[in-house]
Design goal:
By secondary structure, this protein is of the alpha/beta class. Helices cover 35% and strands 17% of the residues. A hairpin with a 5-residue loop joins strand 2 and strand 3.
C-alpha cells in the first residue's frame, strides 16, 4: 500500500509535467554574502498545470573582495548580467516561451542576450531537433538606459587556464614578455589535477572561482532537454566578476581563429559548437562590457590571429608540459567518472590534438604524450575522416578546420607513412603551397596593441621615415625574437606586394589602411596602449600644430612635466624607449591620417575647426570627418572634449560624446594686441589652449606670459621679412581654400598671392570671392590646381609657372611699396614639391636672394 501510494504520487507528478506545458522562465533573485564569499542565483520554471521547478546556483569566491572602491551600481550590473548568463543552464531544460526578468533591461542589452542564448544554444537546438524559433527573446524596456562605470585598474591580467595546449601557449607567451599574469580557473566540483599541474609548471599565481551548479539539473525531468551550452561565455562573465573584485585590467583567453567556423546549417541558422569562443562573440562581449559594465576591463583572445595548427606549433616548443596537459573533454565533465588517463584516445578532441601535434613532434614524443600511435587504430577511421573533412560533418567539439587538419596530416605523413590511417586517407588529401600558406597566415583580431606582437614571427615596418626608424628601435627593444623588416616605397615601388610574407605590419600614417591586407597596427595605437599618463590630443583642419605647441608652452611655463609629440614633436614611440615619469603629460598633434584607424582617444581631445581636406586619402568629406571624430569616439565619461561652439559639426559631436564638454574660453587673459600670432583663426587657437590650461589650473599670469613669449611656427603666416619696402609672408602650411581665406583675412594690403598645387578636387569659388573682395590683382598660379581656381581671369594679372624663382621675380616686378606678398596656395604641395616645408623654404630662399 505504501509502495503504491509512493508510485502513484511520483507518476502523477511526472504525468502532470509531461502533460503540462512550460510557461515561464523566471530570473527570480540573487543574494550576495561578501563575508562568506558566496553569491546565490535563483531561477524558476513555471508550468501551466504543475508545480514549479526552482534552482539555485552558487558561486564561491576565492577571497573576500574589497568593495570600497567599486561603485554599487557597477556591482549591481555585473550581478544582474551574471544572473542572466548562468540562467542559460536552467532555461534549456524546457525552453519556456516567456522570460521574466528580475530587473528591466534596455533594447541594446536584450539584443546581446538574444544573440548569446540563440547562438550559444545552436548545437542544443540541433541535437534536440528543436526549432530555434522556440526562443522568443528577452523582454526589454524601450525607455531603459544603463551606463557603464569607470574603475581604476592595475595592469595585471587574468589568464584562463584549462589544462590544454592553447592556454599553455597563452601563458608562456605572456610570461616571456614579462607580463604580470594570474591563472584564472573556474572549477565545478573538486580541483582538476590537470589544471593544477599545468599552473604549477607555469609557476604563476592562481585565482579560482568555484561554480556549484544546482544538482537538480542532472536529475531526470519528464519532457526536458539536455545539451551543450556556451560555457566560454559563462567563463567570460565570471572572469569579469573576478577582474572587478580583485583589481585586474585584462581577461585573456586562448580562443583561436579556427573557432570562427561552424559545423552545420540548421533551419537557416549557422550552428557553431564553439560560438562562444568565436570572434563574433568576442566582439559582442567587448562592446557589452564597455557599454554596460565597465570600459576599464578588457576581454580578448591572444591567439585569435592563429589557426590551431600554428598554436600547436607554438605549444610544441614547451616540452615540459607534454606529460601533464590534456585537451580530452572526458577529463573535464561534471558529475561523471573521470579516468586517470590524460587522453581517452577515442574522441574527436584527442584525435584532432594528435593530428595537430604530429606535424611538429617526433614519433617518439607524440607517442610519449598519447601512449599509442592513433594512426595505427583503424577503428578511429570515421573520426579521422570527420576531422579531415572526409566524413559527414565537422564534429561537435573544439576542433579546427578541415584545411588545417589536412595540412597537419600531410606534414606528418613521412613520419607515419606505414600507419594504417595514413595509407587509407593520404591519397584523398591534396595540399598545395597556397593551402599551406593559408593555415599558417595570421588573421584579424581584437587584441590590444600592446599584446599584438606576441606569437608573431616577423613584422614589416611600412614607411621608413623618422617615425619608422623609431618604431624599429621600439620593436627590437621590446620583441628581440621578432624578425623586423623594412618596406618602403623609396627602396621598392612594389613594397606593398611583399606584405603577405609577414605576420603583422606597423603602418606609417601616410599609407592608406585600405592598401593593407594583413593584420597591422600603428605607432599611434601602440603609444596609446602602453601609456597610462594624461594625454592631450589636438586635431583640426587648421591650427592643430599651433594649438598643440601653445598648450605645451603654457603647461611647461606652469611647471608641468610635459612633452610635445606627433607631427611637430618627437615620434611617440621614442618616449617608450626609456622609463616614463608618472606625472608626465603628453601633448599630441593628431592628423586625420593618424586618427583614421586609431583605437583610443586622448583624455583631453581638442578640435580647432573642420572643413574638407585630404579628399584623395579619405575618399570623401564624410570619411574625413569620421576619421577626425575618432579623437572623441573612444573617450569615457571622465575625459574632456574641448571644442569651438561656433562650428556646427563640432557642436553636434558634443551632443553625442560620453565625455565632459568644454567650449573654447571666451576671454583671453591678455590684450589682443599683445598676441604674437596673426589672424582671427589664431585667436581661436589661443582660446583652445587657454581652455586646456585652465583644466590644469594654470594661472592667468603664467598663461599671459607664455602666450607673449610664443614664437609663431614656421610656414604658418610666418613673416619672412621686409625687402625693397615689400613684406613677405610664408603660409605654405595652407593647403585648402578655407585655410588660405583665413590667411587673407589675417593680412591687409595683399598685392600678390601665390596659389595652386596638387589638384584634390576642391571647390575654389569662395576663395575667388575673397580674392576679388580684397582686391588682390596679381596672382601666381602653380600647377595642377592653378588652372581651375578662377572661373574668370578678368581684371587679374596672372603668372602661370612651375618655378618658385620666376614666381618671386613676378612678385617683385608687380607690387607697390608697402604691399604684401603672400604664399598661401590653397592646395597641397605634392605636384611640384616634396612637402609644404620644401615649398616654404624655396619661397624664403628666393625672396632673400632677389630682395638684395
Amino acid at each position: 500500500m505504501h509502495f503504491n501510494l509512493g508510485y502513484d504520487r511520483i507518476s502523477s507528478r511526472s504525468l502532470l509535467i509531461m502533460q503540462s506545458k512550460p510557461a515561464i522562465f523566471k530570473f527570480t533573485s540573487y543574494k550576495f554574502n561578501p563575508l562568506k564569499r558566496r553569491i546565490f542565483f535563483n531561477y524558476e520554471i513555471d508550468f501551466k498545470n504543475a508545480d514549479s521547478l526552482n534552482f539555485t546556483e552558487e558561486i564561491i569566491l576565492p577571497r573576500i573582495p574589497d568593495l570600497k572602491k567599486i561603485p554599487k551600481e557597477l556591482l549591481e550590473n555585473i550581478f544582474s548580467d551574471l544572473h542572466l548568463m548562468l540562467g542559460i543552464s536552467y532555461y534549456k531544460l524546457y525552453c519556456p516561451p516567456k522570460i521574466v526578468l528580475r530587473k528591466k533591461i534596455s533594447k541594446e542589452q536584450a539584443d546581446f542576450w538574444d544573440s548569446v542564448y540563440a547562438n550559444g544554444l545552436g548545437e542544443f537546438f540541433y541535437r534536440n531537433n528543436i526549432n530555434p524559433e522556440i526562443f522568443s527573446g528577452f523582454p526589454f524596456d524601450k525607455k531603459m538606459k544603463r551606463s557603464s562605470f569607470s574603475l581604476a585598474r592595475n595592469r595585471k591580467s587574468l589568464v584562463g587556464i584549462g589544462g590544454g595546449k592553447d592556454s599553455i601557449a597563452v601563458g608562456e607567451l605572456l610570461k616571456k614578455q614579462k607580463k604580470e599574469i594570474t591563472a584564472f580557473v573556474v572549477e565545478t566540483q573538486e580541483k582538476s589535477k590537470i589544471v593544477s599541474d599545468v599552473i604549477g609548471e607555469m609557476k604563476v599565481p592562481r585565482l579560482e572561482i568555484k561554480r556549484i551548479v544546482d544538482k537538480k539539473i542532472f536529475e531526470k525531468h519528464p519532457g526536458s532537454y539536455n545539451g551543450h551550452i556556451p560555457i566560454s561565455a559563462v567563463i567570460a562573465f565570471l572572469g569579469v566578476l573576478s577582474a572587478i573584485f580583485y583589481d585586474y585590467k585584462n581577461i585573456i583567453v586562448g580562443n583561436e581563429h579556427s573557432s570562427n567556423f561552424g559545423n552545420v546549417e540548421y533551419k537557416g541558422m549557422k550552428i557553431n559548437h564553439q560560438w562562444s569562443k568565436s570572434l563574433e562573440f568576442e566582439k559582442l562581449f567587448q562592446k557589452y562590457l564597455e557599454n554596460f559594465i565597465t570600459p576599464d576591463v578588457n576581454y580578448f583572445s591572444l591567439l585569435r590571429p592563429f589557426f590551431e595548427i600554428r598554436i600547436a606549433q607554438l605549444f610544441s616548443r614547451h616540452k615540459n608540459y607534454f606529460k601533464i596537459f590534456s585537451s580530452c573533454n572526458r577529463n573535464f565533465r561534471i558529475f561523471k567518472e573521470k579516468s586517470d588517463a590524460l587522453w581517452c584516445n577515442e574522441c574527436p578532441k584527442c584525435v584532432f590534438a594528435f593530428v595537430m601535434l604530429s606535424a611538429f613532434l617526433s614519433k617518439k614524443e607524440l607517442i610519449g604524450i598519447f601512449g599509442k600511435n592513433l594512426y595505427d587504430n583503424e577503428k578511429l577511421l570515421p573520426v579521422f575522416e570527420d576531422i579531415l573533412g572526409l566524413g559527414k560533418m565537422k564534429p561537435f567539439d573544439c576542433v579546427g578546420t578541415f584545411e588545417e587538419s589536412q595540412v597537419a596530416f600531410f606534414l606528418a605523413s613521412k613520419k607515419f607513412s606505414q600507419s594504417a590511417i595514413n595509407k587509407k586517407l593520404l591519397p584523398k588529401i591534396k595540399v598545395d603551397e597556397e593551402l599551406l600558406n593559408k593555415v599558417f597566415r595570421t588573421n584579424l583580431s581584437l587584441t590590444p596593441e600592446n599584446f599584438k606582437f606576441l606569437g608573431m614571427k616577423n613584422a614589416a615596418i611600412l614607411g621608413y621615415g623618422r617615425e619608422g626608424k623609431v618604431t624599429e628601435k621600439y620593436l627590437k627593444k621590446n620583441y628581440p625574437d621578432l624578425k623586423v623588416s623594412i618596406l618602403d616605397q623609396k627602396n621598392d615601388p612594389e613594397y606593398l606586394t611583399k606584405l603577405e610574407n609577414f605576420d603583422i605590419a606597423v603602418k606609417t600614417p601616410g599609407i592608406n589602411k585600405a592598401l593593407i591586407n594583413i593584420p597591422y597596427t600603428t605607432a599611434t595605437n601602440i603609444f596609446f596602449s602602453e601609456v597610462e599618463n594624461k594625454i592631450i590630443g589636438v586635431t583640426g583642419s587648421k591650427g592643430k600644430s599651433t594649438t598643440a605647441s601653445l598648450i605645451y608652452e603654457i603647461l611647461k611655463a606652469g611647471g608641468k612635466k610635459v612633452r610635445l609629440l606627433g607631427n611637430i614633436g618627437n615620434p611617440m614611440l621614442e618616449v617608450l624607449l626609456k622609463p616614463i615619469g608618472k606625472d608626465e603629460i603628453f601633448v599630441l598633434e593628431l592628423s586625420s591620417y593618424q586618427l583614421d584607424d586609431i583605437k583610443y582617444s586622448p583624455n583631453i581631445a581638442v578640435v580647432t575647426n573642420l572643413f574638407p581636406e585630404h579628399m584623395n586619402y579619405h575618399g570623401s568629406v564624410e570619411k574625413y570627418y569620421q576619421a577626425k571624430k575618432n579623437i572623441i569616439n573612444f573617450q569615457r565619461s571622465n575625459d574632456i572634449f574641448v571644442y569651438n561652439p561656433k562650428d556646427k559639426l563640432l557642436a553636434d559631436w558634443a551632443k553625442e560624446t560620453k565625455s565632459k564638454k568644454i567650449v573654447f574660453a571666451q576671454k583671453l587673459p591678455l590684450n589682443k594686441f599683445d598676441v604674437p600670432l596673426l589672424g582671427e583663426h589664431n585667436l581661436e587657437n589661443i582660446k583652445a589652449a587657454v581652455t586646456v590650461a585652465k583644466v590644469f589650473n594654470i594661472s592667468d599670469k603664467t598663461i599671459n606670459q607664455a602666450i607673449k613669449n610664443f614664437k609663431p611656427l614656421p610656414h604658418r603666416i610666418e613673416f619672412v621679412g621686409k625687402f625693397k619696402e615689400i613684406k613677405f609672408y610664408d603660409d605654405a602650411i595652407s593647403t585648402t581654400p578655407e585655410s588660405t581665406i583665413a590667411a587673407i583675412k589675417s593680412l591687409k594690403n595683399i598685392g600678390v598671392i601665390f596659389l595652386g598645387g596638387e589638384d584634390r578636387g576642391y571647390d575654389f569659388s569662395e576663395l575667388e570671392k575673397a580674392i576679388r573682395k580684397n582686391k588682390i590683382k596679381n596672382i601666381v598660379l602653380f600647377p595642377d590646381s592653378g588652372k581651375i581656381i578662377f572661373k574668370s581671369e578678368k581684371d587679374l594679372n596672372i603668372l602661370k609657372t612651375s618655378s618658385m624663382e620666376k614666381a618671386v621675380k613676378f612678385a617683385f616686378n608687380n607690387i607697390k611699396a608697402g604691399e604684401i606678398v603672400l604664399l598661401s596656395c590653397a592646395s597641397p604641395s605634392y605636384s611640384l614639391w616634396k612637402n609644404f616645408e620644401e615649398k616654404g623654404d624655396l619661397f624664403k630662399k628666393y625672396v632673400k636672394i632677389l630682395g638684395k
